[in-house]
Structure formats: structure tokens, C-alpha cells
Amino acid sequence: MLSYSFLRLFTKPGKLIFGLRHPQTALQVLKATTTDIPRLCRAVGMGSAEFDAYVKEVRLNKDFKSHVLDRLERFTKHLKEHGLYPGTIDEIQGTIVYAITRFSKPEVVLETGVASGISSAYILLAMENNNKGKLYSIDLPFEEGSESSQWATLLPKGEKSGWLIPQNLRHRWKLTLGKSSDTMPDLLKELESVDVFLHDSDHSYENMKWEFRTIWPHLRRGGVLLSHDIEQNEAFSEFCQEAEGKSFTYKGGFGGIVKAE
Ligand SMILES: C[S@@+](CC[C@H](N)C(=O)[O-])C[C@H]1O[C@@H](n2cnc3c(N)ncnc32)[C@H](O)[C@@H]1O
């Protein structure tokens, strides 16, 4: 199973030339497309044609491109000039999150880690197209001199968490500010159950393990736990051993587990 639309995400002219110059990377991309994506689709129960259709849908959305992706590109360029990186999920990971949200049609998605709001925007766009769902996001705001100051560069000066989320998608969004370890327990008391969870906050081993173990009993059977930056430590791979479900990874940096029915 090879997703044509998905493959096209990689084959923009610049990336193709890069791939020819770096065959090792090109092989990794081929593996990700031919192995990781089919495995992901099998785990969530989505057919390749349906996955392909969602990829195409989001790629062809001109408003999303100009309001979110083009603005992110300009911001990323600005950060790179200062030797910094925005830390958002990339276009391919965003497309995967979009496809999973479109396919699973969740009522409730919970994510930790918003910053500019790229993952939030993909989830909210999918919910808008589903005509269903609410996204609960938790983000630790930057305070000068606080322990979160390392993340300050992720937002342009004067902007707030989720500044790239288009106005017309915000009616399905509820943002809670604070550390996930402080705010998630109360939020979970409010939510009956969660259909999809995405971790993208503090990537320390302790915090990732804590978030995975805390959300798991609240995740409905068949629900999906997603995590960005799984390569940073063993938290995700260890959790896959202890949790009952089908796991998948994408290029070793993004992963998920579908909770057993
Ligand atoms: C990698 S960025 C999130 C990127 C976002 N998911 C996207 O795709 O655009 C991480 C965010 O998590 C926040 N953060 C860091 N530690 C946190 C914690 N303990 N709880 C909640 N948010 C935290 C940071 O301030 C930052 O806004």
C-alpha cells in the first residue's frame, strides 16, 4: 500500500533534489512511506484510499496554507536566522494528525503543548470538516525567568499560545494555561472520556511517562494516544510495552498507540 498523495508531500522539487543528494535520507523517506504509513493505517483501521483522500483534502486547502503554513514558514525562517527552531510538528506529522482526526471523528481531543498552535490548527480543521468535536489544549505560558523560559523563542514577541490558529476554527477550542502535571488532573475530571490524546509539551522522560499513564485510563477503547518527539527518551517505547494496544511510529520521531477495544 503506497499513498500517492502522501508521497507527493515529499516530492516537492526542493525535497526531490535534496533526496537525490542524500540517498540515505531518501531511503528513510521511502521506508516511512511504504512501511510506517501502512502500519499506522492498519493500527487505526483506516483504508489507504481514505488516508489518501484526507491527505489530498488538507494539501489542497488554500486558506490553511496561507493562514497557517505560509505564516509558519516565515516565522521559521526568521527563527532560523537567529539559530532557533520553532519546535512545531512538521507538515507530514500534521497531515497524519489531520487524517487520524478526520477518520476517527472524535468528540474530545486533548493535547499538551500548543506554542504557535500548528498541531491544534490541524486538529481543529479536521473537526471543522467533521462538523463535530472539541479540542482541549494545555500549554505552559512563558514567564520571564521561569523554568519555561527555554520555550520563549517558540512564540513571536507579544503573541499568545496558538497565535497561528485561524479565527474561524477557534469556536471548537478550549485552552488551559499551566503545566500539564498541574492542570490535566482537573481537566480530566471535567471530561468524561477522551478520544484522541496528543503529547507535545515537556519532553522529559518523567513528564511523558506521567502524561501517558495519566491519560490512558481516560482514553476510550479504540481511542488513540499520539506523541511527538518520541525519540527523545524511552518513555514512549516503554509505555508501548505496558499498554494494551496497537502501536505505530513515523520516521522514529512521532508515534501512537490505539487502545485495544
Ligand atoms: C514543542 S511546543 C508545541 C508545538 C505544537 N504542538 C505545534 O505543533 O505547534 C511545546 C509547548 O509546550 C509548552 N510546555 C512546556 N512544558 C510544558 C508543561 N509541563 N506543560 C504544558 N506545556 C508545556 C511549551 O511552553 C511550548 O509552548
CATH class: Alpha Beta
Largest sheet: 7 strands, mixed
End-to-end gap: 25 Å
The gyration radius over C-alpha positions equals 18 Å
Order of helices and strands: HHHHHHEHEEHEHEHEE
Helical stretch tally:
10
Query: What average pLDDT do the residues reach?
Result: 89
Strand content: 15-25%
Instruction: Report the uncertain regions.
Output: none
Give the total of beta strands: 7
Count of distinct structural domains: 1
The CATH topology annotation reads as Rossmann fold
Q: Give the helix level as a range of percent.
A: 40-55%
- Provide the spatial order of strands within the biggest beta sheet: 3-2-1-4-5-7-6
CATH architecture group name:
3-Layer(aba) Sandwich
Oligomeric form: single chain
Task: Provide an overview of this structure.
The chain has 261 residues and is an alpha/beta fold. The chain has a single domain (4-259), classed as Vaccinia Virus protein VP39 (Rossmann fold), CATH 3.40.50.150. Helix content is 49%, strand content 17%. It is built from 10 helices and 7 strands. It has helices spanning 4-10, 13-21, 23-44, 48-59, 62-81, 91-104, 118-130, 180-190, 205-215, 235-242; strands at residues 108-112, 134-139, 173-177, 194-199, 219-228, 245-250, 254-259. The protein has a 7-stranded mixed β-sheet with strand order 3-2-1-4-5-7-6, sandwiched between helices. The longest helix is centred in the N-terminal third of the chain and has 22 residues, at 23-44. The structure holds S-adenosylmethionine. S-adenosylmethionine is lined by residues 87-89, 112-119, 138-140, 148, 151, 154, 179-180, 200-202, 207. S-adenosylmethionine (SAM) binds at residues 87-89, 112-119, 138-140, 148, 151, 154, 179-180, 200-202, 207.
